[in-house]
Design brief:
Blueprint: H1 2-18, H2 23-46, H3 52-61, H4 83-94, H5 98-110, H6 116-132, H7 136-149, H8 154-170, H9 174-188, H10 193-205, H11 209-222, H12 227-239, H13 243-255, H14 262-274, H15 278-290, H16 298-313, H17 317-327, H18 335-346, H19 350-363, H20 368-376
């Protein structure tokens, strides 16, 4: 019987750990959607039709986004011959004519009279149009052309460069995205958490978990209340097999009341299970259930079975019975009831064992003969 009860432990732990593998990606994806919204807003602001002089005066009043940038800002020069072309580009974008916007940008980029600013501006607007048209590969191409034209002010130039990195990330071109964000950080000297966290997310997707974790941990130290950074740090540490370090971060967050989501609590107690801190895992589960964070269901049933299996393996039969009793009603099938029946039968509680075996058959099990044997005794 001992051998038959050990298998669910392996299944439960493997399934639990598999659910945690992609956490760092989430942050980068959120950065992506945020960046594209900001880029679209900027494109619309850039195409308002204001005079170049008026734009310059307005820009003077606005604090620079990248005050420490090493790039020397170019002088903004709009070719007098390009006014109608840029206005046509603006109109197409305002009408959300994405194909027309991109076609016009291509025309402007090919014109000999177009200045570096004209081309960079046109390509950046086209990049946003392509992104809005869900053509991310084309958006990346336009953003790269805008950066190469080198005609925008620093705010515009580096916003486009960042969008290029985000778009490359979305296209799963992680090496390209890393090269772009490294250039961005080197030239802007930015230490903003969202920029550094995005780089960490790229590293995680390149399986460079130690480097990603190091960045996330530094950010968590400076922003201890940022739960998203914390969970990404934990995921990077777990993927890098630094489970003890991940548990330390989670335990500290737990003590501070930061873990309020079922998945977050599960990351902690699965970490405790992997570290064979079974009592700690049970305490977290019971606390989560008492607070209503953990709800009855197949996932919780599976985790109760892990606790039950460990208790059985350590000859703590009363605890094994209790954990299986909690798991069985909420499990997706009758396997927990069957294991409960086996443990009860082993403990000499024949009547209870038979009742559990009946419940197992009612919910369905892979080996009904095991339940029938208990009923036949």
């Amino acid at each position: 019987m001992s051998q038959m009860l050990r298998q669910p432990l392996v299944i439960a732990l493997s399934a639990a750990l598999g659910a945690l593998a992609l956490a760092p990606v989430v942050h980068a994806q959120q950065n992506q959607s945020m960046s594209m919204r900001e880029a679209d807003k900027r494109a619309r602001e850039m195409t308002t039709g204001k005079s170049d002089e008026a734009k310059g005066k307005q820009a003077d009043k606005k604090a620079a986004q990248y005050p420490n940038a090493t790039r020397k800002e170019p002088e903004i020069k709009v070719s007098p011959k390009m006014g109608k072309q840029l206005q046509s580009l603006q109109q197409a974008y305002d009408k959300e004519d994405w194909a027309g916007t991109m076609a016009k940008a291509d025309q402007i980029g090919a014109m000999s009279d177009a200045t570096a600013y004209d081309k960079a501006f046109a390509y950046s607007v086209a990049g946003n149009a392509a992104a809005n048209d869900n053509d991310q590969a084309r958006a990346a191409d336009y953003f790269a052309k805008a950066v190469a034209a080198d005609g925008l002010d620093n705010d515009g130039h580096y916003s486009v460069m960042y969008n290029l990195a985000v778009t490359q990330f979305g296209e799963e071109k992680y090496a390209d995205a890393l090269a772009t964000i490294d250039r961005f950080l080197a030239e802007t000297k930015s230490d903003k958490p969202e920029h550094l966290a995005f780089r960490a997310g790229i590293l995680a997707n390149l399986d460079r978990y130690d480097e990603a974790a190091a960045i996330y941990k530094q950010l968590v130290a400076k922003n201890p209340e940022d739960k998203r950074l914390l969970m990404n740090a934990v995921a990077a540490l777990q993927n890098g097999q630094k489970l003890d370090e991940a548990n330390v971060l989670l335990a500290d967050a737990y003590k501070r009341g930061m873990l309020t989501d079922p998945r977050e609590l599960r990351m902690l107690y699965i970490g405790y299970m992997n570290a064979e801190k079974w009592a700690d895992a049970q305490k977290v589960i019971e606390d989560g259930v008492a607070k209503g964070i953990l709800q009855p269901g197949p996932d919780l049933a599976r985790d109760y079975q892990v606790l039950a299996q460990n208790a059985y393996g350590n000859d703590n039969i009363p605890l094994a019975i209790e954990m299986y009793k909690r798991a069985a009603p909420m499990a997706a099938d009758g396997e927990a009831y069957l294991n409960l029946a086996k443990v009860l039968d082993y403990a000499g509680k024949k009547a209870e064992a038979k009742e559990a075996a009946k419940q197992a058959l009612a919910k369905g099990v892979k080996k009904p003969d095991d339940a029938n044997r208990i009923l036949a005794r």
